[in-house]
Design goal:
Elements lengths: L39 E2 L36 E5 L4 E8 L6 E2 L8 E4 L11 E5 L22 E5 L4 E13 H6 L1 H4 L7 E10 L4 E11 L2
Parallel strand pairs: 3-5, 6-9
Antiparallel strand pairs: 1-4, 2-3, 2-7, 5-6, 7-8, 8-10, 9-10
Length: 219
C-alpha cells in the first residue's frame, strides 16, 4: 500500500509541560477546543439523538447486549486494541444531541463509537471512534494517538469476531480545517474505514487542533 502523501509521521512537537495541565482534551469540529467539555459536532442527518450520561461508567455498567449491526458491521459490544500505543479499551455507543454535538464517554479510559454512523466492519462509510486525551494524569484513552504511524495495526473485537485495520493516514488539523473537512471525515459513503479522533496542540489554555487517524480494513 502506498502511503497517503498527506500522512504526518509521529515526529510531533513534544508535549512537555502540557502533560501536567489538569484539563481534558476536547474534540471539536466547529468553533474551537476549550477546557469546558469534550465534544465533536457532527455533520449530515442522523437518527434522533439521545441524552448524554453525566456519570463515568463502570466496566460492569457497559452494555451487555449486542449492538445492532449496520451495513454488515460486526456485533458489539466492542473492545478497541492499538498495540503500538498500548490501548486496550471498551467501546460504548454514543449519539449526538439536539445540537448535533457528539460527546465522548465521561470515563476518559472508554472510547465512544458514533452509533448513528457506520459500525465497525460495515460495507461502506466511516466508523467513527472518539476519545479523551488527559494532560494531567496521562489517563486518556487517546493520549498517544498522535504517535501512530502508517501501517500500524488497530483491532476492533466483538463477541464473535475481530476486525483488523491498518493506519492509512495521521493528520493534525487546525480547528478551522477540521470544520471544513468534517463532511469527509464523517462521510457514510465510499470505502469502509475506521476513523479515530481526539485533539492536540494544547497551548496551555485551549486545544488548537484535532488528531484524525484513518485506517483501512485488512482484507
Amino acid at each position: 500500500m502506498t502511503p497517503d502523501p498527506t500522512f504526518l509521521r509521529a515526529g510531533r512537537t513534544p508535549r512537555g509541560p502540557a502533560r501536567f495541565i489538569a484539563a481534558l482534551c476536547l474534540v471539536a469540529v466547529t468553533a474551537a477546543c476549550s477546557t469546558s467539555g469534550d465534544h465533536v459536532t457532527t455533520v449530515g442527518s442522523t437518527a434522533a439523538p439521545s441524552s448524554v450520561t453525566t456519570t463515568s461508567p463502570d466496566v460492569n455498567e457497559l452494555p451487555r447486549e449486542p449492538t445492532a449491526k449496520q451495513g454488515g458491521g460486526i456485533e458489539g459490544p466492542y473492545v478497541l486494541r492499538i498495540p503500538q500505543i498500548g490501548v486496550d479499551a471498551h467501546v460504548v455507543p454514543i449519539k449526538s444531541n439536539e445540537e448535533r454535538i457528539l460527546e465522548p464517554p465521561p470515563n476518559p479510559s472508554v472510547v465512544g463509537w458514533w452509533s448513528d454512523g457506520a459500525a465497525p466492519g460495515a460495507s461502506q462509510g466511516s466508523a467513527v471512534l472518539v476519545g479523551h486525551t488527559v494532560r494531567h494524569t496521562d489517563g486518556g484513552v487517546f493520549d498517544d494517538l498522535e504517535y501512530l504511524s502508517f501501517g500500524d495495526p488497530i483491532e476492533v473485537e466483538g463477541p464473535h469476531s475481530t476486525l483488523t485495520y491498518r493506519v492509512d493516514s495521521n493528520d493534525e488539523l487546525s480547528i478551522n480545517d477540521f470544520a471544513r473537512n468534517a463532511e469527509k471525515i464523517f462521510k457514510q459513503t465510499g470505502p469502509a474505514r475506521l476513523v479515530l479522533i481526539t485533539c492536540g496542540d494544547f497551548d496551555g489554555t485551549v486545544w488548537r487542533s484535532n488528531i484524525v487517524i484513518i485506517a483501512a480494513p485488512v482484507s
